[in-house]
Amino acid sequence: MVRRIIEIDREKCNGCGACAAACHEGAIGMADGKAILLRDDYCDGLGDCLPTCPTGAITFVEREAAAYDEAAVLAKKAAALKNSAPVQVPPSGGCPGSMARAMNRDETPTAPAAGGPVSCLGQWPIQIKLLPVEAPFYQGAKLLIAADCSAFSRADFHQRFMRGRTTMIGCPKLDEGDYAEKLTEIIRRNDIREVTVVRMEVPCCGGIQRAAETALRNSGKFIPWQVVTLGRDGNIID
């Protein structure tokens, strides 16, 4: 079948290994100091590896390739866990800003001694394009899928929307591609409990709402969800 799959330019690859660490399916490995695609059927075509590559060596291509085999990927992960296989970690280079981590904040944060608000951000990264498809912070999570501009329109955005949620942001007008496919996989592969979409009233924000609705529908799961629309002044209008 002809489908979208990654291609690695060995001339551009600097051997940092960041892409191999970012690939949750184990489709990428290292050979002779360079990244290689190990098996076509391990690559889901979502491209979590792309933003981690510091040299731009990874791109998407459309070519004849075996279909993504989720069962084979899960079997590989199970075998690796059983054999305690070491996890590939980039020795150097790559983009530290794309490395996933949970903040482990208290569910009910209080103001610091010096006074003032505190952050309710519970994980990193937050850009939809950079977020991994699978991560511990998705398990039992309430997702917040927010348009980039929305957080700047309300002073209480952290407390009102982010508190207790896994935050994902994006701009359908400025980012390339559609979020729907990646959001579908995140919802499908993880234990997501509910989804809240926060968008602005401007028409271009409809893209992030449509992507979330498509993902919820295509995931095959029934999950409670809501859409909150903010006016340009930050007031909730819907």
Question: Any key phrases for this structure?
Answer:
238 residues; alpha/beta; Alpha-Beta Plaits; Rossmann fold; 2 domains; four-stranded parallel sheet; two-stranded antiparallel sheet; 6 helices; 10 strands; 21% helix; 22% strand
CATH class of the largest domain: Alpha Beta
Uncertain segments: 84-93, 107-111
Name the strands of the widest sheet in spatial order: 8-7-9-10
Radius of gyration: 19 Å
Total helices: the number is 6
What form results from the Cα inertia axes? elongated
Strand content: 15-25%
Q: Note the main sheet.
A: 4 strands, parallel
Which fold name corresponds to the CATH topology of the largest domain? Rossmann fold
Distance between the termini: 44 Å
Average of per-residue pLDDT values: 85
Give the count of structural domains.
2
Listing every helix as H and every strand as E from the N terminus to the C terminus, the arrangement reads EHEEEHEEEHHEHEHE
Quaternary form: single chain
How many distinct beta strands? Answer: 10
- SS class: alpha/beta
